[in-house]
Amino acid sequence: MAIVRGEELTYTKLQSMDFSRTLCLQSVSALEVHGPHLPLGMDLFMARWMAEEAARRFAAAHPDWTVVLQPHLPVGTDELPLPGSVRVDPHTFYRLLWSHARSLVEAGYRYIVVTNGHGGPRHAAAIEHVCRKISRRYGVSMFSPSILALHRIITGERFAEVESILGRPLSPEERAGLLAGEHAGGWETAFQLAASPDTVEPIWQGLQRDEPPKWAVLKRLAERWISWRERSGKPAEKIQEFVDGVSGGIGWLLNARYGYGGPPVTYKGTPAVASIELGHAFREVMVRDCLEMIEQVTKGVVSAEAIRSIASDHPLIQPLVWRRVAWASVAIVLVLWLL
Predict the structure, then answer these.
(1) Does residue 321 register a pLDDT over 90?
(2) Would you report the helix, strand and coil content of the chain in percent, each value rounded to 5?
(3) How far is CA 325 from each of CA 242, 315, 322, rounded to the nearest angstrom?
(4) Right CATH number for 2-153+285-326 from 3.30.70, 3.40.50, 1.10.3470, 1.10.150?
(5) pLDDT tens-digit series, residues 54-98
(6) SS3 for 339?
């Protein structure tokens, strides 16, 4: 079982590696406030655990491969702006991740897996964007299975798998609580109870459903847009999901900085439905999904670019989009002026 840590490799060992049979795992997530009950490092813990557990299982199944675990990259964007969160602006995060990924390619890696525990929209969009661009430009396979895996779980798509592992149906209270959104809610609280219960404040058992206020301006505009699409017979589910996320994100930002909608909201979901057994099931489903996507890409069944989530669907949250809009506007003005 060949698992090595990237920081322990020597230049000589790196040069002797067979990169056609080497899997590189890079975890990425920063510190962020996670309710009054969970550690600031929740996203970091989840990202690093996914990398380590996927590495262990992949190495056990493929003894002829070398698996390299890179040091965690403690950076991110769109974190909840409360004291304790560590964040950089979206452009800085994108450029940092791009430069880091390019260095991994220059080192020789051809299969690069990014694991992430943070659901910030521009954070996830930047990771998937970098993965696609690096894969295309350098002819490698760089992808992030964890974003899609987590989205499937928190939206209820993996309830059947969770129940199979639990050996029982989820209760109505668990189902409702786990579908109430996720940031230090039922899923993450359960993860940490299973991983390190001593780091969870006992008050989690009394934390009922909460969520940030939605930004009313965007919410009203979206309701009109969705209503128009529905009258036209066009699907609106993805738009509704996107608008809920963005209006909630903007509302949360305004709430944290300016008190919009009331006192500071530090979590989304229902922590009280968590349990240790649910945490073990969550971890198992998450790593299985990640590992399945890794197997598909390394076997050539699926391309790295096909591994993408809802974070790649909406243009407004993509890296550099507003810079491109600005340059396009300047170009149009110049052309009109020259005419």
Answers:
(1) no
(2) 60, 10, 30
(3) 21, 11, 5
(4) 3.40.50
(5) 999 999 999 999 999 999 999 999 999 999 999 999 999 999 999
(6) coil
pLDDT of amino acid 331? 55
Dist CA 145 CA 259 (whole Å):
35
Q: Which residues face 24 on adjacent strands?
A: 68, 112
What one-character DSSP code corresponds to residue 17?
-
Average pLDDT for the chain: 91
Query: What is the chain's alpha carbon radius of gyration, rounded to the nearest angstrom?
Result: 21
As a whole number of angstroms, the distance between CA 48 and CA 41 comes to 10
CB 297 within 8 A of CB 111: yes
Q: How confident is the model at residue 272 (pLDDT cuts 50, 70, 90)?
A: very high
Give me the residue spans of the domains in the chain: 2-153+285-326, 212-264
CB-based contacts of 38: which residues, under 8 Å, 6+ apart?
184, 188, 189, 192, 199, 200, 201, 204, 267
CA pair distance 140, 175, nearest whole angstrom = 40
142 forms bridges with which residues in the sheet? 112
pTM value is: 0.89
What integer is the mean pLDDT of 238-247? 72
How far apart (Å, rounded) are the C-alpha atoms in residues 64 and 68?
13
The answer for residues whose C-beta is within 8 angstroms of residue 228's C-beta and 6 or more apart is: none
